[in-house]
Amino acid sequence: MKTTTAMLRAEARVVPLTASPDRLAEVLDALAGYETLALTSIAAMMGDDQPAELRTAICTAQDAADLSACTRRLLSRNTPASGLVVRSALETTIVALDRSARVCGRLAERPHCRMQAEAAAETAGRCRRLRTQLR
């Protein structure tokens, strides 16, 4: 996060946020970390003995990972972005993360599902806090 925070402080941000660089860096790093963890979890689920059982969990984790990547890229840009666009991206990502946390949480006996569910829930919480700081 130190690298992300340093980058954010070094440039004038035009993202429609009143968040501190530390808060924005926290969310950017959480989104990147979630995406990596989710993709690893998806690979483990697909290699499971019964991947058909995990189809919904795989799909929800893919949705959440893809939306996390998209939102991270949007928040990382130093170009004018509509507050409505940023808010919509955050809200859609939160919905996908919450759904993935719920679905994968039901499969918590599998370590990769438990870790993915926990990371999704934590990342959704960070996104919610950032959403409250939109202009």
Explained architecture:
This protein is mainly α and 135 residues long. It has one domain. The protein contains 5 helices and no strands. It starts with a helix and ends with a helix.
Share of helix, binned: over 70%
Biggest sheet features: none
For the record, give the distance between the C-alpha atoms at the N and C termini, rounded to a whole number. Answer: 24 Å
Structural class: mainly alpha
How many strand units? 0
Low-confidence stretches: none
Order of helices and strands: HHHHH
Q: Give the radius of gyration.
A: 15 Å
Report the average pLDDT across residues: 87
- Contiguous helical run count: 5
Number of domains: 1
Give the amount of beta strand, in percent: under 5%
Can you tell me the overall shape?
Answer: elongated
InterPro entries: Csp_YhjQ
Topology:
Layout (H helix, E strand, L loop, with lengths): L1 H9 L10 H26 L8 H22 L6 H23 L5 H21 L4
Helix pairs in contact: 1-2, 2-3, 2-5, 3-4, 4-5
Key phrases:
135 residues; mainly alpha; 5 helices
Give a brief outline of the structure.
The protein has 135 residues and is mainly α.
